[in-house]
Amino acid sequence: MSTPHFSLAIGVGSKNRNGQWLEVFYPRPILNPAPALLDGIARLVDYQGGNECIELDSKTLHALEDMFIDMKQDELADVASILEESDRPRVITILATDEAPTSTPEAYLKLHLLSHRLVKPHGTNLAGIFSLLPNVAWTSEGAIDPEELPERQLLARALGRILSVHSVDKFPKMTDYVVPGGVRIADTARVRLGAYVGEGTTVMHEGFINFNAGTEGTSMIEGRVSAGVMVGEGSDLGGGCSTMGTLSGGNSVVIGVGDNCLIGANAGLGIPLGDRCIIEAGLYLTAGSKVQVLDDQRKVIDVVKAGELSGKSDLLFRRNSLTGTLECLTNKSAIELNNELHAHN
Amino acid sequence: MSTPHFSLAIGVGSKNRNGQWLEVFYPRPILNPAPALLDGIARLVDYQGGNECIELDSKTLHALEDMFIDMKQDELADVASILEESDRPRVITILATDEAPTSTPEAYLKLHLLSHRLVKPHGTNLAGIFSLLPNVAWTSEGAIDPEELPERQLLARALGRILSVHSVDKFPKMTDYVVPGGVRIADTARVRLGAYVGEGTTVMHEGFINFNAGTEGTSMIEGRVSAGVMVGEGSDLGGGCSTMGTLSGGNSVVIGVGDNCLIGANAGLGIPLGDRCIIEAGLYLTAGSKVQVLDDQRKVIDVVKAGELSGKSDLLFRRNSLTGTLECLTNKSAIELNNELHAHN
Amino acid sequence: MSTPHFSLAIGVGSKNRNGQWLEVFYPRPILNPAPALLDGIARLVDYQGGNECIELDSKTLHALEDMFIDMKQDELADVASILEESDRPRVITILATDEAPTSTPEAYLKLHLLSHRLVKPHGTNLAGIFSLLPNVAWTSEGAIDPEELPERQLLARALGRILSVHSVDKFPKMTDYVVPGGVRIADTARVRLGAYVGEGTTVMHEGFINFNAGTEGTSMIEGRVSAGVMVGEGSDLGGGCSTMGTLSGGNSVVIGVGDNCLIGANAGLGIPLGDRCIIEAGLYLTAGSKVQVLDDQRKVIDVVKAGELSGKSDLLFRRNSLTGTLECLTNKSAIELNNELHAHN
Predict the structure, then answer these.
(1) The whole model's pTM is what?
(2) Smallest CA–CA separation between C237 and chain B, in Å?
């Protein structure tokens, strides 16, 4: 058993009346567990190797607690101690390798690894995750199978309570699972579990971060970070701005934002940006848009499709308000940029 | 009594301290009830005809339950059975005809019919509905009259609870009343009761659907479906896009979207679209905008106001990024379109 | 003690485990308290003058209740009566002057004064308020220090409850503290405590109002009112529109909107507007944008930066959909406007 393993975590979750998992909450997921820890756990839960999720009873959790105390793993001992008293379904998920997930508990563990900042977006294999995540009614009384909802809502009403449904989705909101350190998220309904929210990031009310997407570090996010998009250190997304995702519409290029960029309010981004780029408020830059490239004298040096400027740094995109022309200014490197553009033509 | 009736439903709701209805929840509304069912109910609740809402006590609900069991109406029997134990205000609303509603319970029934997909947007008479819907504080403890809220909030606080107010509005969120089958709604605060959400629709976090509006079938809704707007089968609304409503601003034309359309992120729509139309991301198309119509050789064949293109199919709208001109391309039928435009001039 | 005082309020709040204030709820804040009331309170709570917050025990609250009854201050007597039974931290905050706040209870009082419409945006000194507002997890079980959240969430889960985190922010949502009269707020997560929401205002689902910002009176707010921005009587903000704030990006000019303006859906505003101005849907007007000014014959009379049109009335901004030129039309006063523009050049 002493081969390196990808991850493990103890969790507690919800099932529907048919005994199918709806979701799992892992308070302390572990990346690359130490071999001694893994071996100790394997013995107690009868883990046979591979990627597996094993349901836990109170007795096993108590044995785990004792072992964690011996190993001076205080946080894990706390988790085991609290969960051994619970009557909810409890599980340990052990991933030998970072293969595509094959069960709901595995899928939830991978989403936790992202939101706990243990792996970065695109840093774990999420292939096929949609089909492993059941659609769930996320309610004031926890996760409920939509099939079971009507009866629950009527019963609650008859008793004078409201069973409020906050979301009906395959992904829960991140903050009901983890609030990573050093962040503010004004409206948590808009950040999915599986988002990677860098320390120092503020997500304002209009901000949004999908799963497998996020921010490297300090950022002010008032726009939408689509699935797969990573925003570099120090970059800000203005109110209501859009980053084109790869899930629906758009193109197949993964959009990203470099460091210290500024995307204006109500603007949009259809190409990956380098560092220190600016997109003017209200301007939607799609890959196919033709752009006049200006030098530092504001002289036109080229006309290219925006997609050809992908990943380049120090660019400012704006629409000339008198001619309607989409312009790209560059303060630092107009001549190099021009050479570079034509070099790969 | 054996004339055809429009609708009936048994519900449970909330009143303020003055005994005025705040809202009604109807778990199983019925469109065009069978005459035998209606007659049986009429006898038990002393219904005299017309559009009426009649409060129910536990004894009457018990009698209704027995009758529903005899009629093998299991779902209705369940509703009656659960509500006969309740101490909340219970009501049966019977609509002989689809006239304009005249009470809060009638108004709520019509909103339910829409969200249960029993009638389509514009398919039931909602005239005057705003004045029948009281403004309500929708809270973690249910519907509260805003006048009664300050005392309730202070009392909750003194007891160490938080009485959280999720919305102050005439319309509640749909999902606290019904979650129709086959949908995902990432942030339910953004879909009002009275929305018609077609099976297969996903409403993402930035999506919004007003009452008397919705989607025919499979759609990805990441933009705003204003009151009165219907989105056809297979059409997608990109993140943050806008459809102009008729309630405030805009024009009096009802906006709609045909089948298999794509409205880009942060775009906007001020005219009704036919099928297979595309609006480029970031482009707001108002009815009064002048548009260059291009043929499949990209030659300008006409300049018209966008409103003249209302309802036509196979159009692509974009802003030329070098000239700033709003262009309409059409792959299939440029010549026919041109003829058609000038035919009605 | 009989000098005029700025404000006082009795509140109840939350502290973290270290005894630090997280937030304070003041049900009935008072601006410019009557000297007799202030003097009576000062004696009972041992107030020595200046800006101070003094914790209250049940005995003192009972004495305050008796005094309020004697003074026929029924609302204050109710507050004291309810809070004397509470085991939560209670406080009276007295502000002799409107200086910059120096504690969390003082900061919260100032935010309450705004949302109770006792002072207008920019009408109270908020200097340094960010550092006085701790970052709080706003949950279904009240305000929680983010440090204490993981354990609370795990315990709740083990017991089969969900401890849902609605927001992680320095500012709470306004409606958990006060719902001012005559407003609708469809999604309360989008209006911060410290917003000033004028009577007759509807904030739709896409609307947003930051602290120290708001509406004078009747308005339909479907866009974003940034910190510091005030919207005049009768002005509407279309869906998804943006008003440039002064906190991040943008310029240092405080943006405001005059009376009876209309900002179109997905539009944006980077200059202060006078009265009766219109910005076309989808148009982002930044201060640096060059604008063609047209007279009532649609003849170009000038080209200026939009910033030079700051605060002027009766302007309509649009982008010419054939030329891409940003145009400013004025129905009433083209000649006067022209003279005025050149007078200050």
Answers:
(1) 0.95
(2) 10
